[in-house]
Every structure is written in structure tokens, then in C-alpha cells.
Write a structure and sequence with these properties.
Strand order of the largest sheet: 1-7-8
Number of strands: 8
Order of helices and strands: HEHEHHEEEEHEE
Largest sheet: 3 strands, mixed
Radius of gyration: 18 Å
Helix content: 25-40%
Structural class: alpha+beta
Number of helices: 5
Strand content: 15-25%
Distance between the termini: 26 Å
Length: 185
């Protein structure tokens, strides 16, 4: 039997544009005496990745379209936020009071195209999903390997609610170093 151990990397700062996530992860792991090993799998939230990549939008600089204003009226959401959500979506799946379910540009059906307000400096700033989450995961993975010599995997995650369920799940929106889908053909 192969044991699985989950270890939180603590002591990471709020991430800013240009921060090197691989370096921050390596430094924090070293500081807490949990050295990085071959085969480790790191999970980074999309918000941290988007912020490091500079993919943060100031809603005060967004001019809502007519469509965004109409949807904002139906949902009770900020029209500028709705505009960002629309820009990040392929298709609207559902609109109702307080709810805007879309298919994101990356193909995920989720609330608000994955646009998130949590853990972001500034009252009016939001973080969309990374433009290419698999590439983001690859960059972090290669950065960790360069710094430590260890071969690890990296998952970029987002929290999704589930219809008709209480609670949320984390979904891998980007992966590097492991196969996320098992071929059962």
C-alpha cells in the first residue's frame, strides 16, 4: 500500500504580479521543514496563479456593455463584474437572481466563468482564470525542478459549486506532470 500524505505549504504571502510561485513554494517548504521530494504534487489556486501572472482586473476600469447591464439587472451583480464574466465566457448557461452560470473560455461550466474576488488586494479587483492554466502549471513545475532538481506535478485548481448539493469541490483547471484523465477504452 502506498500512503498519501497531504501537507499544506504555509507562510506564503498574498501573491502579487510578477511573484515567482515556484520560488515561493520552495522557500516556504524549506522553511517549514517539508523538503520537496520527487513525485510530490502541488496544488495552487487559480487566484494565486492569476495574480502572479498579472491577470487581475480593476472593475473601476471596466465599461459594461448593454448586455452586461441587462444581465446585471437580472442577477443583482455589479455590471462591471458581469462584463468581465462575459469576456471570460464562451456561452451563458443560466441567468437568474444572484446566479450567472457560464462556460468559461477554457471550457469549464461554472459560476461567473471562474472570475474570483477572494484573496485579492483592492475592493474592486477580480482574478479571472489563467489564460492557459496548463501552461501556468508547466511553468511552476519547471521552476520547482530548476530550483530543487526534483520532478513534481502541479495542479492549478478552482473551487466550483455543485448544483443541488451543499458545498463546493476543487477542480483541476490546469495540470502538468501527471495525466488527469484515465483512458478506459
Amino acid at each position: 500500500m502506498n500512503p498519501v500524505q497531504v501537507i499544506a505549504i504555509e507562510g506564503l504571502p498574498l501573491i502579487d504580479k510578477g511573484d515567482n510561485l515556484a520560488q515561493l513554494i520552495c522557500e516556504a517548504a524549506e522553511k517549514q521543514h517539508t523538503p520537496i521530494q520527487n513525485g510530490d504534487i502541488f496544488v495552487a489556486t487559480h487566484v494565486a496563479v492569476s495574480k502572479a501572472e498579472g491577470n487581475v482586473v480593476d472593475l473601476d476600469k471596466v465599461i459594461p456593455s448593454k448586455r452586461a447591464k441587462e444581465i446585471a439587472e437580472k442577477t443583482g451583480k455589479d455590471p462591471a463584474l458581469v462584463e468581465v464574466i462575459l469576456r471570460e465566457s464562451r456561452e451563458i448557461v443560466r441567468v437568474r437572481d444572484g446566479v450567472l452560470i457560464t462556460e468559461s473560455r477554457q471550457g469549464f461550466v461554472c459560476a461567473n466563468s471562474g472570475v474570483d474576488r477572494s484573496n485579492i488586494r483592492g475592493e474592486r479587483n477580480v482574478a479571472p482564470l489563467p489564460r492557459d492554466p496548463d501552461l501556468s502549471a508547466r511553468r511552476i513545475r519547471h521552476g520547482i525542478k530548476k530550483l530543487t532538481g526534483r520532478d513534481v506535478a502541479v495542479i492549478v485548481s478552482d473551487t466550483h459549486g455543485r448544483p443541488f448539493r451543499m458545498g463546493e469541490v476543487n477542480v483541476a483547471v490546469g495540470v502538468s506532470g501527471l495525466k488527469p484523465i484515465r483512458d478506459r477504452r
